[in-house]
């Protein structure tokens, strides 16, 4: 309901049907003698307004916007263009209809049309419902991508999810040569925007002015015949340029003071801030300068000799109200970083040293927000030649280094640059891909996230009238200027529209193609729809073809619309081809199989059901379609289809043949000329097989209602023999093999669990010649001879639809990634030490009592909703430690006999080593 400004009692309702059609309802009130509405209803008026996606909730904002919280798919944000008062849409009035419930009346009709009253402003990504998910690295990046199928009907999508921040590119310009570095600088301290872009080449320096156009300038005082090592706006209105042979101090009146490097020595590293300069000579000496009261650079009398060659230097920003930065960080090729004092009483004295695993390539001292203290903390960021990034706390009083956190960024040496993003100081780290280190806007915790951008060789701040908070970078021979708009969303999504609701998908083993089976119930297939349109006796001449993305497909009871789509998410980023199934068939399963009998040629197998009714379940037949790949997997050629008794709900490649779950039966098929040839069969499930996994000769069979059964295939006897099953009736929705004896899975009630086969049963099943023994071994309680052991169990807030063992970050540990029906992505990380288990168990216990849920539930009871939680620590709850008030943090830290910073580091490390 929305109240209109102006007239008293003026308001309207927006109602939505199950098809998404919006209707505007206005209510006329009985007025009193003064013309004021009394609250008594005189009549209702209703008219068609527009059509939007089916919503769970609608919210009209006073500013003239409508938020549609979609039931499925992306949420939509619309702007009201008009209120539909002056259009030609028919308005129906309650006076025209009888008031009696049993009186007859003439039905009214309306014609849906494209939106006229609403215009789409923004769409908010939502993966609900998420049907399936797979991890693969198809772009040869450091980290893999997550590919998923989401949505329902014509609004379904194939989505690529990538860890990274979205980057808005402003300029890409080719340069005359390949620069080695780039800087920007203001002319005076009070300037709002940068005035120059300075590019350093191997044989010289190029200066560009920033204005409406970017042009080369020569009268700047910069030495153009030598490469540049550093540029800085110094004091009120001076500039300095550091080059291998010296330092140029350029005054506002273009007077230049030159400091020359000692004879036979050159400058190899430099660092600057607005009042200080430090350079390292090839002899290993550090020369320190500080600006004096008249604005000139004064050299400190003594030079500091280092034990090795200096590879990098860093000065922090001058704190407000101070004369200088207190510390100078020096990195040497002996794999050490030293902190030198810049205090006048102890200039260039050693304060602390830190040994590293590799020589440092870059250093950066900067103050950043700190969730531990709630304020700002001084950090030293270190980039190593090995591609490792370190962040360590630098004590502002003693200069000691502590609380070091490590992250592997890529195989290339790490370069570091201080930048400003969204009003906060951040660090740009460049390796094989660019990364940004920043404080999370919500938790204030430190985040290190890759940028969705090509690899850069150098980066720097950039500020102009057109782009107040941007960055400038070098990529080969190109100069790129870009900005980062949002720090809140570090998971990027790319969507490819699909035709119907996706059910399952598989990947081509060699090429970057996916094959998606899609199906919608009670929808007319294209063939049926065309047949009806061609029949003149049933054609509706007034019908207009409306886009199915907004209005859906034509309905038909007990009809199925189903297809197989070939999707290329990497190169062409679209659906390459689609095969529509006919004869009211619905695709239910899919697998890629390399048949050994066909010289290991790979085929696509698709299981279908004919005339399926969802509830109560019925069908007329099942089929397995076989397709051959062409054009590197981009085209499919139909070979043949084989009729089976029931729709095969699970297919899997197995030892050069096809494994199929048909009802209760598990079958092995080989490829024949005209149909599939059945080679083995066994009834292994109590109700219906819905999933298959395999390693070696062992097969994990998922039943729709009775958990999993382990089956062994005995090649000599050609028998499929179940040998171990579960004690709990789990409504299995997904499974994966963690190792040869352990299975992870999820069920329809939101549980995640880990089951393990007893060692004795596993050994017996794999013994040669044990087929007859297993076949005649006595059953236990009408099941398999042995029972699985429950290793872990946890209740999640979503229904798991897929689970797989994978590695999400470069150099990280394996974890279990699971996806939920409502769009959830979660991970299960294995502990590797008993110490970590004890620590997180204790932390979890404290948080259960110190951080009660808003809804009043008990954490332990919630996670034990169906089965008592076992072997799983609630990571989401542990991460809420960073959001607690400072006094509670310190209280818990005291109980754990650790510091707040140490607890936050352990929580952060457990996530970053396996995921993001």
Automatic annotation (TrEMBL):
One of its GO terms (molecular function) is nucleic acid binding. The keyword Nucleus applies. Residues 5-124 form the RSE1/DDB1/CPSF1 first beta-propeller domain. It is found in: Nucleus. Coiled coil: none annotated. Gene3D superfamilies: YVTN repeat-like/Quinoprotein amine dehydrogenase. Residues 168-484 form the RSE1/DDB1/CPSF1 second beta-propeller domain. SUPFAM superfamilies: WD40 repeat-like. This is Bcrse1.
